[in-house]
Every structure is written in C-alpha cells, then in structure tokens.
Amino acid sequence: MKLNIKVWRQKNKSTQGKFETYPVVASEHMSFLEMMDVLNEGLITKKQEPVAFEHDCREGICGTCNMVINGQPHGPMPGTTTCQLHMRHFHDGETIIVEPFRAEAFPLIKDLVVDRSAFDRVIQSGGFISVNTGQAPDGNSLPIEKGLASRSFEAAACIGCGACVAACPNGSAMLFTGAKIAHLGLLPQGKVEENRRTQAMVAQMDKEGFGMCSNIGACEAECPKEISLENIAYMNRAYIKATFSGEEAS
Amino acid sequence: MQLKSNIPSGDLADKWTDYKSSVPLVAPNNKRKLEIIVVGSGLAGASAAASLGELGYSVKCFTYHDSPRRAHSIAAQGGINAAKNYQNDGDSIHRLFYDTIKGGDYRSREANVYRLAECSVDIIDQCVAQGVPFAREYGGLLENRSFGGVQVSRTFYARGQTGQQLLIGAYQSLSRQISLGTVEMYNRHEMLDLVKIDGKARGIIVRNLKTGELERHGGHCVILATGGYGNVFYLSTNAMMCNVTAAWKSVKRGALMANPCFTQIHPTCIPVSGDYQSKLTLMSESLRNDGRVWVPKKKEDAEAIKHGNLKGIEIKEEDRDYYLERRYPAFGNLVPRDVASRAAKIECDAGHGVSPTGLAVFLDFSDAFERYGKTEASIHAMSNATKEQIKEMGVKVIAAKYGNLFEMYEKITGEDPYKHPMKIYPAVHYTMGGLWVDYNLETNVSGLFALGEANFSDHGANRLGASALMQGLADGYFVIPYTVGSFLANEISTPKTDTNKPEFAEAEKNIKGKIDHLLGVKGNQSVESFHRRLGKLVWDYCGMARNAEGLQYGRAEIRKLRKEFYADVFVPGTSDEYNTELEKALRVADFLELGEVMMLDALNRNESCGGHFREESATPEGEALRKDDEYAYVAAWEWDENEPILHKEQLVFENVKLITRSYK
Questions:
Q1: How sure is the predictor about A249, in pLDDT bands with cuts at 50, 70 and 90?
Q2: Are B41 and B171 in contact (CB under 8 A)?
Q3: For labelling, which of A222, B321, B384, B526 has a CA lying 20 to 30 Å from the CA of B152?
Q4: CA torsion sign, B392 to B396 to B402 to B404?
Q5: Taking CB atoms and an 8 Å limit, are A84 and B165 in contact across chains?
C-alpha cells in the first residue's frame, strides 16, 4: 500500500516545528511502528535525519509508544496502543497525520518524543503502599474477595502512556491518577493510607500543570487499556472523604 | 584466573540461613555515607534500589527509559513461581530447587538455586503487601496454575500481565524511596562504561540521552541489573531497546561473560510473517496449560494449509499429530521450553509446518473450551446444554484466564483464536548466560555485582517458565541487601569517590572517542541493516541447532561484519542531542563482539544440554546428549579482540544426582 505520512518535525523545545509529508510504501501486515521504521530507513538511506519517536516492547504493555494518529492518541482502533495498531486498518493512498502527545505537562523533546516524567512524580507523591522489604505477612493471611481483586487489577492495568492526557481538551491526568488511587484503595492493604495518598496525589497532579476533569470521557475512549471512568468517580469520592478526614497530606 | 564461587560451607538447606546470620553488617550511620549505583530499573534493579534505599544506603538508580516503569520485565506474561504449597500438591523448597536444577540440565550452581527457591516464598508475601492484584479463588485466597517442566501448581499470576503487576509493585516501592530522598533516579541515562579504581568498581560513565552529555557518577560499588542480550538475534521477544552494553562494557573492563551460548528459544511465539518484522511476540507458556500443540499427520494437509486451501479446524482428529503428547506422555504439552522448541523445529523441518513459511505449529484450545464449558454447565445445573452453549461457556472461562493474550494474537495476526487454533513457532526469548557472579552475586571485578537476567547464576542451560520474575525479585529484594554487605562492610572508611580522578577522565575520553568515530564513518549502511545481518548469523549458526562447522563459519562472518560496520555504517545527527540512531549504533557495536563470543562458547561446548543443542551430541532418538565428565563446568570468557580466553568453574553437585533429563 502507498501512503503519505504527514508527520510533526521539531528539533527541540525551543525551535519552531512543522509538518513534513513523506511517501511510504508499506504492507498491510506491518504494525504502525514497522511502517515508521520503513519511513526512517528511507530517510537514513537519503542521509536525512529519521523521525524521532519512542517505542520499546512493541507488544502493548510498556507504555512507551505515544503518537496521535489522525487526531486520535494511538490511532483509530479501540483498546490498542500504537505499537499494536496494524496497517490493515488503513487504506491504500491514505494520508496519515502523525503528531506528538500534546499537553502542557508533557513538554516536547524532539519530533514525536515528549517528556512524561510528570506521571512519575504523581506516583512518587503517594502512589504506593508504605511497606518495606521483609515486613510482609503471609500472602494468604489476608483473603481478598475475587471480584474486588479483579476490579483492582483492572485499574492496575494502566500502562502510564499518557493517552488520557493527550485526549483530554483540559490535559487532565485524572484517569491516570484515579486508576492508581482505585488500584490501591480497593485492596484492604492499600486502604490504610488512602486519605493521605489521595490528597498528596491530587495536589501533585495540580502542581504538574494537568487540567481538571469536565466529564468529557475522551480519556476512557482513547485509553489503550480501556481503563474505566469509574476510577475518576472513585478518586473524587476518596478525595472528598480525605478532605473531611482531618488527615493532612504529608 | 581462579574463579571462586564463595559458596558457604554446611548443609544445602542451612547455607543461606547461616550466611545471613554471619555476613558482616553495616551500621545505619555508615549506610548513609555509602553510595550504591544501580543500573537498570526492571524487577531486579527496581527491587534492589528500593530495598537498599529502605536500608538507608545512598542509592543512585539509572535507566535508559523515560521512566523506570518501562523496563522489559513489564512484558512478562504468565506468572511467578513460589514453593508455597498452597495447593497441597506436594510442593516444597526442595522440589522447586530440584525442578530448577533439572530444568537447567544440571549446569547451574546448587547453592544459588536452593537460595532462590527459599526466597521464592517471601516474594509472594512482599508483592501481596505492596498491592499486587494476584488472581484469587472465590474464597479470597491466592490462585495458582502450572508451568512447563514441573508436576505441581506453584505459579502465581495476575491474568497474562504478571510481569507488569510485579514491576509496578517494585516501581512503586522505588518511587516511595525516591520521594524519601534515599534513591536518586536518573531516567534517560544509559551506562556506557564502568570505571575501576585500584581494581574495584567505583563508578560509571553515562550518556544523558536527552542532551547527549556524558556524565561521571561515582559510588562505593556498582550493581548491574541490565537484563539479557537476546536482541543479539535482532528478532526476539525482547523489547527494542534491550541490549548488552552495560554488561559488555564491564566485560571489557575485566568482568567475565559466563555461558553466553545458553540462550532460550521459547516455543510459543507468533511466527515471523515478513522481512520488515522488527520483533516477535510471545504467547505465554501458561497457554500450554490448556492448549494442545499439534501438526497435520499428512504432509499434503500441511501443504494445503500452507497455501491457504485448507484450515486447521477442517482436519479430522485422527489426522492430527499431538506430537508433544505422543513423544513425552508424562509431561505432554507442558514439557520444558527447550524440549518443546526443538520438537516444533523437527516437525516443521520434516514438512509438517502450517504457515505460508512452513514454520509454525498449531496451539489448539478446542478441547479446553469443551472441558471448561462442561464444568460451567454442571455448576449452573444445565444438564441439557447444547454443544454451542458449552463452547460459549468454555470460551468465557478461557477469556477470563488469558483474554489479553487472545486479543493480542488477534491484533497481530488478524485471525480470531477463539475460532481457529493459534499458529506458533519458537523465538528467542531469554538468555541464561550472563556476567559470571559468585554466591554474593559479585562478579570477578571487586565491587561489581550483577542481578537478574544480567547474571548467569540460576538457570543453567535452560530456564523453566515463571522463574525469571522469581529470580529478578529474589536477587533484588532478598539477596543483594545481605550480600552487598560482604563488600561494603570493608568500605566504611572509604571516602566518597572522586569523579575527577584520571580513571574517570580516561573512561569518558574513551567513550567520547567511540561516539565521534561512529558519527564520523558516514558510510552507506544503516545501523539497523547491520543488526539484522548479525541477528541472522547468530540465529542460523547459534540458534536451535548448532554444529562445529557452522559455528566456525559464523564466528568468521561476525568478525568480517564487525570490520564492515566500522568502515561503512551511517549514523545521522550529532552527539549533543537526542539521537536514537547513535544509541542503537553503540549497542550494535557491542552485540557484534558478544556474538562472536557466543559462537566460540557454543563451539567449545561439544555437548548438548538445555537450550544448547549440538548436532554432534545427540541420542539415537534425537534427544540432547549431555557429557557430564567433560562439560560440567561454567564457561566464563575474558574478552580479547583476537582470541577470547576461557576460564572454567567446575560445578560440584553434592545434593542431586546427575541423570539424563527425561520428560517421557
């Protein structure tokens, strides 16, 4: 299949970027990133600079890859990361527009590469259970209801890619943060410090420059792991509870 | 060079307990003054950095990823073993130890493996406490499943995303230490050299991948948790950035590479479909709990499937060869990986393969749909359920167990595995070889430690499923916090490492020279094209079957390729910017040296064991023939541009009898 790839090129944060269009011949069996490999191999052969993009596991779990494809983070297929998107979902002759994830809290590094370390800092502010190595009781000493464990797992399936932020007109990270608060808070071992955790993570989220949630739902629609909006509702409940708990975020 | 394993004396079952109660300790006020460098943030690196930070050491942790949560441990699917015996099926620490030693075809160290089995039980407890959402039974207790090479059910899991959940647990512990200030985290920093002062590992040179700047970092010791080298094959289930550079640079500073030819070819991966392919995707071994592997008995059926004229589901039961069940009745579809991979190769080589390339076998769930469907029907008292209803219910059970894997399969192949059997073929997955370490996980370079897949220590010539996660976390949470004391207790009066010392300047200059050289070649071939060619050589001559002639040829070809690389590679861009081509070039340069040592190691080991199959050493039935009299040793290689030097550590077996590994 013959395609035109209209891709965002920008040397670094302080220079002006622009779209460039490149013709690419691809096969429908390729993944989107393999098509980008073909584009880059062609550029390198012409002694030009390849398009910088991030990727690693190429099996949809590491959360490294991040592109906005035809206006949608990770492209048109639901529940799919860029690396798992295959060219059979595009048609011959198509012009595909590829942009970086855009959000105030994700500053651009080069071309399609952005800095998502704000997510790490949100986790560092409280996205954990305070237990040191060696302190744990026997794993079976605390039975956890199967359904609860399953709901916790579904929130924990977040890969931290940032599509929720890129999809949100407010650049909000509430799906990401809510998923972590729900993952830990649903479990009895994570309940203990939930008030403190919720306050600290919400404060950090605001500090990083992420916007507020206005219930649009684009985050859930674009999330490659289909993390539910219910996690935002969970976070809001936990936040109200924490606010009235009298506990302070440290 | 005398390789000392430093295994403590005493009974196997008491060694680790005795060691822990006698290893020298470092007092809390001294811990703060001691700086530890941890390279890598996967299961081993993150768990080590977090645990050492909790103990009060000053830790610096480095990763080339944009976040520690991206490390490739995240992609592990199936599960983690632990000798909990929650299933009351006869499991014990000794049995896990024995299974691992046998699974590794008697090429690992007894004491290390026994310790691993001991630590396994604590890992599960630790992870549960961190909030890892493991699968649970209706009663709320932890659920288990089985993996290859064992006859008990000891694998704990979180759907098909166990690695992800365990890594996030470790990442969160690490994040907590970062927020407490005990760990300083360096994202997007790649280690490019090891710095030794007076023979001890005292620092590293890293490249800031965002700015291209070279930085010097000093410490009292250096811990490498940098994963395996499977990407030397170009196509593997490893993530694209996985590389050997940190380990290899340490080899070039005097560390030894042990058993590099011991690589694991995983039997259940999605087959290669075209030349453009950049990586291969694993379908978890856990699928072999419920899936049955088969090929058409008749070659003409295989031929018809190959050309798209026949479908797998159309082949009658009596025309199917469930070759694993036929050849290995005792373990059936759950034989270890090396055995299953070789069997698939034999069937495909004989013309029974089922994809357009002829390199694929079926993994079929139809029996499992029916079996689970019947159980569900019985639970719901549906005594007259139709065949369709039964299948539908069975599909639901399978979807709950492996849903994400089935989805992944469909995304990649475009075929629905609930309707058609999966097509699978072996692919490079894991490397048992790695940096030589002693019982303390310390390399032969004093103060340089290696954890997880980066070391060679626990899996011998073949790793059993669900034990990579176990080893990474055992090393990081429970082993290194003790064993690092054996080194650091003698360093309490050593001042902070001065990075202005000439050793740092020399290392930095050396790496700068290398970067300038690669950028300066301005040849005509891309880094990627060299990597592909190297991968093909290693796969063709040091893959699932090896022989002396091929290995000699392969070695010579790699040497030629290396020369060509330095004469004709094209690396665009500059050194002082974000430049992924330069990153790749530096990694491929190291793979081009490692590949040669792999060939040499495989050539030297004229026996078949585990994943290393020498065609010259097989039984009449085509099974691997081990030669314990000649090769019951660890082959540890010292790098030399002209002729790498072999050092041997004889393996001593005091507790298990070396017998022919049989799964029949």
A1: low
A2: yes
A3: B321
A4: positive
A5: no
